[in-house]
Amino acid sequence: MELSLKRPLLFFDIESTGLNIVTDCIVELSFVKVFPDNHHETKTWRVKPWDYVNGCQKHIDEKASEVNGIHDEDVAREKLFLEIAPEVVAWLKDSDLAGFNSAKFDLPMLSEEIERVRAYCEKRIADPGVPEANKEKARKTLESLDVDLHSKLMVDVQNIYHYMEPRNLKAAYRFYCGGEDFENAHSAEADSLATYEVLKGQLEMYKEPDKYHEMALKNDVQFLATVAGRPRTLDYAGRIILGKDDVPTINFGKHKGKTVKEIFETEPSYFGWIRDGDFTMDTKRQFARLKEKYEKERNEARSKPLEGEALSEALSKLQGKFQGGKLF
């Protein structure tokens, strides 16, 4: 069935350096613009991700590269989003928007990139040290960004999918266990029994790989617990994940991506904020447990006699504090 459109509908997708809207950047942007007569036009840009503060290319996270296949060297010679922003906005201007899970990620990321360009241009215009020719270029770029993404309709195809095909226990039971609803749904015992039957049905349905499912399910609890790549967490709320080499890593807020130990060493008051904040008791307990562990390690290190390189380093620092036999 063809779409019934009164104005163009622009389907878009983004590949990025990572999943943090605030700190990550676009590395690939693709538009498919469908017009009311149902013909469509496409445009794809590769983008050099840029750190406007430090004036350098931003690194693509290795996990992002594993998903999108794009590495730092692949975009090193591409244009910055700053350079393509006028063309991007021109494609956006007369269209409503559509995507898959785009309302939660792609649209906020696209908006963030546009706002970064806007802020950069405003800063250039206000800087007395910037040549007038460059200021004029910034003004023209700024004028081209006249678009309000919030005013556009956003069709998220994933939301429609989940609405029409619910992902709840009743739907799973119908799909894996013969197409009938089970009795007494939402009573604890019935739900538990239904969940048991659903898992057996999943093991039966996916016991061999096929063209739609590259991986078969193993009838093994340890394997089943890791299906879908869910990150391992120390707390049930997922505020602390096990990062590289299973190091406890903060998974939210301004310190997202930093290790818990790093914050213990640089901002110990953070643990008090967690203790007194609106977090689950389990999350508070895990932060408190790690804090106690790091304090114990620090105290043990202080009481341990220095030797080898550690002793040499300490003596070197001490010598640096003396000059001419006097402490200064």
Characterize the structure shown.
The protein is 44% helix and 14% strand. It has 328 residues and is an alpha+beta fold. The strands form four sheets. It has a five-stranded mixed beta sheet with strand order 3-2-1-6-7. The radius of gyration is 27 Å and the shape is flat. The model has no long low-confidence stretch (mean pLDDT 88).
Strand order of the largest sheet: 3-2-1-6-7
Shape from CA axes? flat
Beta-strand percent range: 5-15%
Strand tally, please?
Answer: 11
Helix content: 40-55%
Order of helices and strands: EEEEEHHHEHHEHHHHEEHHHHEE
- Taking Cα atoms only, what radius of gyration do you get, to the nearest Å? 27 Å
Structural class: alpha+beta
Identify the notable features of this structure and list them briefly.
alpha+beta, 11 strands, single chain, 328 residues, 13 helices, two-stranded antiparallel ribbon, five-stranded mixed β-sheet
Task: List the topology elements.
Layout: E1 9-16, E2 26-34, E3 40-46, E4 50-51, E5 56-57, H1 62-68, H2 72-75, H3 81-92, E6 96-99, H4 106-126, H5 132-144, E7 154-156, H6 157-164, H7 169-176, H8 188-205, H9 221-224, E8 240-242, E9 248-250, H10 260-266, H11 269-276, H12 281-303, H13 308-319, E10 322-323, E11 326-327
Parallel strand pairs: 1-6, 6-7
Antiparallel strand pairs: 1-2, 2-3, 4-5, 8-9, 10-11
Helix pairs in contact: 4-5, 7-8
Summarize this structure briefly.
The protein is α+β, with helices and mostly antiparallel strands and 328 residues long.
